[in-house]
Amino acid sequence: MIPTFSSRINQEPTSLDALFALSGRADLISFAGGYPDPALFPKKELNNAFEDRIKKASSEIFQYRSILGYEPLRKRIANYAETTGITCRPENIMLTQGAQQGIKLLAGLFLDDFDGVVVEAPTYAGGLEAFNDHKPTYYEIPMEDDGMNIDILEKTLEENNVKLIYTIPNFQNPTGYCMSIEKRKRLAKLASKHNVMVIEDDPYRELRYTGNALPSIKSFDLTENVVTLGSFSKILSPALRCGWLIGAKEIVDQLSSLRLSYDCQSSNILLEGIDEYLDHNDIATHISKLRDVYQHKMNAMLTGLSENLPTECSFSKPTGGFFIWVNLPESLDARELLNETRKVTFLEGSSLFATSKETNHLRLNFTGITEKQIKEGCIDLGNTIKHALLSLAI
């Protein structure tokens, strides 16, 4: 007989389990997963990069190396960080197995059981999964169309003992909202004043479709209270599982020791392959193509929602990223709608709230499907919601 699992293990399916299950339904149009468009992966260029780097590299490419990851790639990321307002050196950077690992490592480094954690309401399900092992005391901060409500955040920090603040400032998952520069400055100042760590999760930064890029929250950090996470998953390929973490050297050093009990380091072969790709390809041109395609898809979904959702619904109108957030009438439960739709899946919103578990919201992804599928899915979603409202009225 198998011994009893640890009390830390959630034996019920998690929201991430549900997300990947919904996204894998080949018989339905998936608005559920945050998947890039596979047709846009630079397959030929990546294949050439990996072949060429392995051919010309010494046998050391197959050896153990620095826990922080391949230094030339870290130097590239340090140079890129300068464009976001962050001044750092390679020793301030750890290459991770996607940004998700960065969240998990930081949770392990900073959180004791029941520590206070501020999260946006709603927020990324994977962030909550990373924190949940530590039984945190969550404090939800409502989202506004220019980022979390900083006035409520300030009051929360004044009245409670908070250890971490988790935020997605650019095209937030799931709402698509972008934090204003004023709020970024205030957040960094509050973190310093109250001695709270900020995890700035920033995988969508380069996927801005209109307007100008805003400086990183960390660019306003004067006391090393902000750690920034980035990723190649949304701009190159999720399967590469390559992200990065930028923070104070003291934090990165401690994370290095902690990581030895996880996976020791990222794959040298993958990191050198990415470096080779960047040597011989203009990633800015590739990202420009992504922006063009995704902007058309986003506009197609915004149009489809405008034409098909009943007037009782509202939805976000992002200027970048992967997602649109739909608000239903309070009388409707998105979990029930998910069982009623005929053609489309989506991520119901209750799992994206740490404590309030609001049920009248849903998250839609537009990047991983075709414009034709977007049109068909919006029609089906609209009809499903209209039918549910009509049923309530009878």
Taking all residues together, what is the mean pLDDT? Answer: 94
Taken in chain order, the helices and strands follow as HEHHEHEHEEHEHEEEHHHEEHEEEH
What is the alpha-carbon Rg in Å? 21 Å
**Distance linking N and C termini:** 53 Å
Poorly predicted runs: none
Number of helices: 12
Trace the largest sheet across and list its strands: 2-9-8-7-6-3-4-5
Category from helices, strands and their pairing: alpha/beta
Shape: globular
- How much of the sequence lies in strands comes to 5-15%
Which keywords apply here?
394 residues, single chain, alpha/beta, four-stranded antiparallel beta sheet, 41% helix
Structure characterization notes:
With 394 residues, this protein is α/β, with parallel strands linked by helices. It is 41% helix and 15% strand. The protein has twelve helices and 14 strands. The chain has helices at residues 15-23, 43-56, 71-82, 98-110, 125-132, 150-159, 181-194, 249-259, 268-280, 283-308, 334-340, 371-393, and strands at 29-30, 93-96, 116-121, 137-144, 147-148, 162-167, 197-201, 226-231, 243-246, 314-315, 323-327, 344-345, 347-348, 361-365. An eight-stranded mixed beta sheet has the order 2-9-8-7-6-3-4-5, with helices on both faces. Strands 10-11-14-13 form a four-stranded antiparallel beta sheet. A two-stranded parallel ribbon has the order 1-12. It is globular. The model has no long low-confidence stretch (mean pLDDT 94).
